[in-house]
Amino acid sequence: MTKSAQVPTKQSRNWARRGAGGLVDFVDRRIASSRWGKRNAGRAFPDHWSFWLGHIALFSFVVIILSGVFLTLWFEPSMTPVTYDGAYAPMQGVVVSEAYASTLELSFEVRGGLLMRQVHYWATHVFIAAMSVHLLRVFFTGAFRAPRKLNWLVGLGLLVLGIVGGYTGHGLPDDLLSGTGLRVVEGGIVAIPIVGTYLSSFIFGGEFPGEDIISRLYVLHVFVLPALIVALLAVHLILVRRQRHTQWGGADKSSRNVVGSSFASHTTKAGALVLIVSGVIVLMAATIQINPVWLRGPYDPSQVSAGSAPDWYIAFLDGALRLMPPWQVDVFGHELTLSVLGPVIVLPGIILTALAIYPWIEQKIAGEKHDQHILDRPRDMPTRTGLGVGFVVFYLMLWIAGGNDILAAIFDVPVNWVTRFLQIGIILMPVAAYSITKRVCLGLQRRDRDKLLHGVETGITVVRPGGAFSEVHIPLSRPAAYALASREREGPFELGPEVDENGIPAPRPRWSKLRARLSKVYFGDVIDQPTAEEISATGSDSRHLATAPAGSGVGEKPSHER
Amino acid sequence: MTDFSSPRSRLNRPPIYQGDADPTSPQPARVAGRAVLTSDHPDRNPASRDVDQRLGDFAPQAGQRATREVAGALAVAAVFVVASVVFYIGFADTADSSGAGLGNLQVSNLVLGLTIGVALLLAGVGLVRWSRVLMAGNPIVEHTAAGGLPQNGFGEDLAGRRLGRRPLIRNAALGALALLPLPAVLALRGFDPDASRRRAQTAWVEGVRLLTDQSYRPIRASDLQVGEMVNVMPASLLDLPEQGPARMNERAKSPVVLVRMQPEEMTPAEGRENWHVDGIIAYSKICTHVGCPVSLYERTTHHLLCPCHQATFDLSDNGAVVFGPATRSLPQLPLAVDEDGFLVARSDFTEAVGPGYWEREA
Asked: What is the pLDDT at residue B196?
């Protein structure tokens, strides 16, 4: 299909090309694919390393599906007890569930089975990690702004589905760690007020662990969640195509065009990335052991091993469980366990809600009415970038807390100290990260302004006939200067005079006051770009810069404090 | 709601490189907020095209070399694919002769994974080189109409006409929707009305012997040294079918830790003075936080730590929480000695074991 744009015009002597061309023509005569190809031939695909993060997620999902189908051929999603008599000697004669026995069979008796298990597991890690980094990229560059707010939600949904998919898979082998994970989930569910006890009974088919949960997780894991992910992926990709990809501002770029690779080049690179992503995942599976279920033994609810920690993508919730103070309230004689409800139910709810509505909030504050197709450099939106880094630090503190016992062992300090340190840190560090990041962004903005006004330092010092020293600066090239200057200058939203010239009080809804305050936080201290007059005043061509007399401001640290 | 005409002096200064406003464009030349204003005018918007040529475009020799590199990478990839197939078929004999030991498994996993992985990686790297060095025609510029997505307020119009005029109907509809989950909540209770009562009961009743876990032997008081800890199950567990969910469920609720300390080290709460036997004292093993089995015992401090979330309980002080996220003490199992001298339970736990739930009395 991809070759349809380049169907050879003359009969090629190369049999392979002739064959491929013939096949393409055969298909084309039936489904008119050349129209599709011609439409695509004119399309531009913006090229930047960060635009490939979503592809990595997509391709690792393909690896997940392929390896997962392989695993279903042997895996038995059943908790029926059997006496293990397989190839793994240490477990022979032990009563285990069919799920656990078939996982051991996959690992030890199916050729390539262990590799496929490890591919499936590693691909999941790559999938969720790639989606997470992709989400951060979209956030920090403002790619979530209109008209892409809906796609931001779809992407967020995909991340949640990916995490739930990973966790349901983690529960399937019925080994000691997966069962312990389910036990924690059950403890979280019963903490839900009013319905918790019955919800748990509904999910587990009675008491924990029961005999149903593995087969139920299996249906979710191999049917419901993949179907939802594929559906949302389709929506995600269709929206990207409809709304076209965002691009960085700069030479050639405008909000009325897209500049990038051709369809053929992009498709080749995408194909290459499929191979590279799956190659790296297979290499990881070959060389790095993951989830050795045979070492842990089958699940027994009365046993647990020290250092039990969930997979990294769920570790932030486990960390929250470890950091939460032991709070519990009495609601009319009922027990409300805040120390469990908060981390397991409320916290993810707050995080997801905040992420989901952020595009709408920022749009209100910024007062944007038009579609945004040019990405922000993170430094140009210091408050957004600061909030993002603050959130990342908050997440990381929770994530670190998920391994507080392991940290305590590594640093040889009491686990209580690590917990206390993190409990305080999780409040202070995000705030510190916010304000440091914002300062760094403003500093980078000053640097950009500096470059535009005074060019780039060369390190060449010249001595003037009068004895004065100055450094030669080279002005930026026109495309480089344009890339820095093409963003619009920002200013905070101001309310304006309270009364107009006729003395009539201006209407001031409460919202606009709030917006003015928030807008000041967002745009109040943004560094102005230089105007054309300012640039011509300092001189923007190299001869002028090189020969300007000392003391004229050229080559010295510019002062542009407002 | 948004007033863009308010004075904002800093915004009114002309930006550099601002494009000429296109009179045919539906977008205004200057919008408030953060829109990036650029222009397609070549004088205003400089081009970067000439610096982005492919190496193969102007250096034929480099192009030929890259062609050889791409072909070479793909050929080596093919060799690795063949190697993986050879290994996959050939490995069968060695696996049969010595059984599926861990050593064989590791070799199989490594060789199979390395050959397949390297083959995929090399093919991918070859394609990237092809695209970056040899494929011409980058970058291309695709022109798109500004405001290509509908902006005509179709939905607002619809909502304003159909719903805005009838607020009563709208509010009634929202109210009805809000009540929809209620039947679901009731249905959930209907599935298993016994759920909360079952949580409060375990297999312990009066006179049930304490058995060591796994080996299921009854325990005499003299079997335990001071400082020792033993995992214990109720003898009634053995009445349940050996394989099946009933026993598994009981293993999630009934496990007990039995420890022995000097009687003077204990500070039993009121009414619990005779729940121990010569300093032998029993607590539920199920953490009151989220239900992991509490299993790390420090005999000098009598602290019992849960490895999942580090809730720590003081067994000399009625199982009180001394650290971590748990909100409740570990439930204590009252002990006695039967006529044969074995440890037995005086009764079931006097409170529900495991994580907190709504129906448990606060």
From this structure: 87
